[in-house]
Design goal:
The structure is a single chain. The chain contains five helices and 26 strands. By secondary structure, it is α/β, with parallel strands linked by helices. Among the domains are: 171 residues, Leucine-rich repeat, LRR (right-handed beta-alpha superhelix) (Alpha-Beta Horseshoe); 35 residues, no CATH class. The chain has an 18-stranded mixed beta sheet, with no helix packed on it. A two-stranded parallel sheet has the order 15-18. A two-stranded parallel ribbon has the order 17-20. The longest helix has 38 residues. It is flat and about 105 Å long.
Length: 557
Amino acid sequence: MKGHRYWNFVGLLLVICNLHGSAECSMCETCICSSTDSAWIVNCQGKRLEDNNHHRFDLLMFDEQPHLSVLNLAENGMNFLPTDMFTNLVNLKTLNLSGNHLQEIPENAFDQLWSLVDLDLSRNNLTALPERMITIITNLQRLNLSQNQLSVLDPDLKLLTNLTWLDVSHNNIQSLENGSLQSLTQLEHLDLSFNRIDSLGENNVIHLTQLATLILNNNRLVYLSPHELPVSITNLNAGYNMITNVPETLNNLQKLDMEYNEIVELNDNLSLLNRAKSLNFSGNKLTDFPNVKFEKLETLDLSFNKLSVVPETLTSENIPELSTLVISGNPIRELKFNAKLNLEWLIAQSLELVESIEEDAFSNLDNERSEGCLNLIISQNKRLTKIDANAFRDVNLCSLDLSSNNLSSISPGLIKMQNNTGLLKYGVNLQSNPFHCDCTLQWMLVDLVPKLYDAYPQLLDDLKCASPPDKKYMRMLHWYKWKDQVFCEDSQILVSKVVVEAAGVMSQSSETIKIESSTGMLAALIGAVVVLSMLVTVGIVLARRIAIKRSRKNRRF
């Protein structure tokens, strides 16, 4: 019934178009059209074609554009597709139907789309694809079925032997039927993430000899068998599962993400991943790191494991190209590096047991690369109250982030002023610490705040005092360009600048009161005298006016 009303409406518009000429019915009045020498491109994304009150017939006259190559109908709220919507589009290569409300595809809707190479059906409500459709679009190279309601991986997909890119993430797939993928030998990218898969099955992924990227994160996998994965893989993401092992036979791997699994130990076979440039083992249960060599490793993430110390196996000799090391969230008590490392970035956040950082703790962190400096992030460590003034001795810092710790004071010697700006190359972040703003921090007002104001003003937003009470919650920027030694003055002096010497209040011999003044005191006294004089003057004037009124009143009687 709904379809009849729809096509009656279309028929009416057809008559109108014939009466008023095809120019007024051009699809390009509603959509964005462009062309090349041999292709026509129509972009109707977000035009809300589901609303028949605003629907224009020309949007359905695609069959009159035989050279139409790219058609984008994404985000139109479409609930269904007319069976002959794509009739005669034999040259269509790219079709985007993502972000609609499609629950099914008509059996014959794609009958003439045999030239299609890129199809996006993501963000719909599809539960399956019609078999007839799959048999027609066998030239397809890219297929996006993510964010639908698929519960199984359609076995007919094996007919799409030209596929190089397949995304079925964010569905409800629980398992892979044995052999369902083995014929997709051209596949280079496969995304199975955010499903409920507990096994990759047999004779599936292992046959994908061109596969470079495999994304398996956020499933229910407990084991990755080396016999299930092709050695062609260079990028493997298997994070957020329950996996207990590392697929060490993938010697072409360049990037491995195994975050938040159940890995307890890494053995020496990890060295088989000798081409790896990035390893992510965050959120596991590691207590150490093996003594193995990685000639090409650049990034290593060991955050949120069970490391009690910084592993001494992390050395420049073992990992000469390591530039970024992340050790956040471990039960480390002493943050110290006993072996030499050539790092560009060190990230040590949320170390709940670290209370202090001692002298020369980072002296082994040399950087012999071109920039020759270290970006150091030691933040969000709620128990960190003290950092020795020589903790960073012999370390050439590019930037320093000590924000959101529990520091009440910090030595000026800790922050080496460098280059012409007088700051580290990329700034110093000391925000969100409970600083006690006394004379020991006066250097921050004199040296640090002005330089941050000129070069990195965003690093002053939350640079505040926590004590003493009269300065609590006040931003240090408040005292920018003040000439007084604000942090070195007593709080009462800061407020009134009046000092009364207790020893000079009473003189026992002369019985006189002695008040020793300062410049501030004299200013206050002068101000008081001026105010008093004004009050006396006002009083005299008012008294005279009252007297005059009374005398006038007495004359009347």
